[in-house]
Amino acid sequence: MVGTTEGVDSSASNSKKNRIQVSNTQKPLFFYVNLAKRYMQQYNEVELSALGMAIATVVTIAEILKNNGLAVEKIYYICLHYLAEIMTSTIDMREESGGRPVQKAKIEILLGKSEKFDELMAAAAEEALDDE
User: Fold this and answer.
1) Alpha carbon distance 57, 90 (integer Å)
2) Each residue of 40-52: pLDDT tens digit?
3) How many separate domains does the chain show?
4) Residue 9: CATH number of its domain
5) Exposed / middle / buried, residue 99 (Cβ in 10 Å: 0-12, 13-18, 19+)
6) pLDDT tens-place string over residues 4-33
7) Cβ atoms within 10 A of the Cβ of 28, count?
8) How far apart are CA 99 and CA 107, in angstroms?
9) Cβ atoms < 10 Å from Cβ of 109
10) What is the rounded distance in angstroms from the CA atom of residue 93 to the CA atom of residue 28?
11) Contact 8, 90 (CB under 8 A)
12) What is the pLDDT of residue 3?
């Protein structure tokens, strides 16, 4: 398990420019879906990450993108094991008042463009122009 955590940390530091840290309280779901689409257009892949209760939101975003044919999950070779790029771990945090450590679950999902991504995005842009 230590190897997995190290792999998560090293992949996260290498891809900060295309990383979205998702909150389930700050922005609506489709804000993150649209932001992920823009990041995939720009960088060909996007890394979604979340802590605690926001994990369900990240999974939902990834499923929306995959079910619409826009994204595919990427696979990395880390620590002699093939791992789907859905990696979970826990991180230690401090409570605001007491200062004692609290563990929070963390997830990171790396999505890449599907083969049809550009075609689907062009069709969506054309449809948006027709609606105006």
Assistant:
1) 17
2) 999 999 999 888 8
3) 1
4) 3.30.110.20
5) exposed
6) 333 444 444 454 789 999 998 999 999 999
7) 10
8) 24
9) 27
10) 25
11) no
12) 35
